[in-house]
TrEMBL record:
Residues 27-240 form the Radical SAM core domain. This is Anaerobic ribonucleoside-triphosphate reductase activating protein. Its cofactor is [4Fe-4S] cluster. The keyword Glycoprotein does not apply. It comes from the Bacteria. The keyword S-adenosyl-L-methionine applies. It holds the Pfam family Radical_SAM.
Length: 240
């Protein structure tokens, strides 16, 4: 990627949905700030940040965030860009450059919806969390976008061929993920060389459409967890 001369003016168009000052769970093993960028091309029914689906709902708060971040040198390991889908933000490479220039490591949460933009951002990233929503063939029904499964496969291929540390993780719920689907997802990822994988229990919102309750106690079952663990160098079940 060509070097870009960065000024504050270059990044003022970035649309932020807010930021979280401290997090110990958004980048495994790192204490970080999390910046939420507005905008996402997909419409998953269980989205937990529906207010961030439209880029126009974000605020041009990047200069204020950078001013705040300047006082956190030595206190934070890095900054994770989340969303929404952060790769929908056109100025993301500039934001990453500015954060790195301040001495912070950079991380990204992405759904894999923009593989061509991910390719451009990878040289500026230290870590990526790739959201695996379901099997590639099931993506269109979940996201409402034809071809979304192919985009995820291309994004995964980019990460596997890069030197950037990454993990795959799936927010799971029995309404969307049968036992067989979970087994097939794990098999797909492990056979392609994914080493770090996590399941996150999805907690539906009160106004969830369709309305579904929390996963029953003991789901997913211990046998499935044990089976999945054998496929990866590191596997965990988290509360989302």
């Amino acid at each position: 990627m060509n070097a870009v001369t960065l000024t504050n003016q270059d990044a003022t168009s970035a649309r932020l949905g807010g930021w979280q000052p401290f997090s110990a769970c958004d980048w495994p093993g790192r204490l970080c700030a999390v910046v939420f960028l507005a905008g996402c091309p997909w419409r998953c029914g269980y989205c937990h940040n529906p207010h961030l689906l439209r880029r126009k709902n974000g605020q041009t708060d990047w200069p204020r965030f950078i001013s705040w971040l300047a006082n956190r040198c030595g206190l934070l390991d890095g900054v994770v860009f989340s969303g929404g889908e952060p790769l929908q933000e056109p100025s993301l490479p500039l934001l990453l450059q500015q954060v790195r220039a301040m001495g912070f490591a950079t991380g990204l949460h992405t759904s894999g919806s923009y593989p061509h933009r991910l390719a451009k951002a990878l040289p500026l990233l230290d870590w990526v969390g790739l959201d695996i929503k379901t099997l590639p063939s099931h993506y269109a029904a979940l996201t409402g976008v034809t071809g979304s499964g192919e985009h995820v496969q291309n994004s995964l291929s980019l990460l596997l061929s890069s030197n950037v540390t990454f993990e795959c993780r799936s927010s799971i719920h029995p309404h969307w993920h049968s036992r067989q689907t979970l087994q097939q997802m794990a098999a797909w990822l492990s056979t392609h060389g994914v080493r770090h994988y996590a399941w996150q229990l999805l907690r539906p919102a009160p106004d969830q459409i369709p309305p579904v309750g929390a996963a029953p106690p003991g789901w997913p079952d211990l046998a499935l967890l044990s089976e999945t663990k054998t496929r990866f160098e590191h596997f965990s079940l988290r509360n989302s």
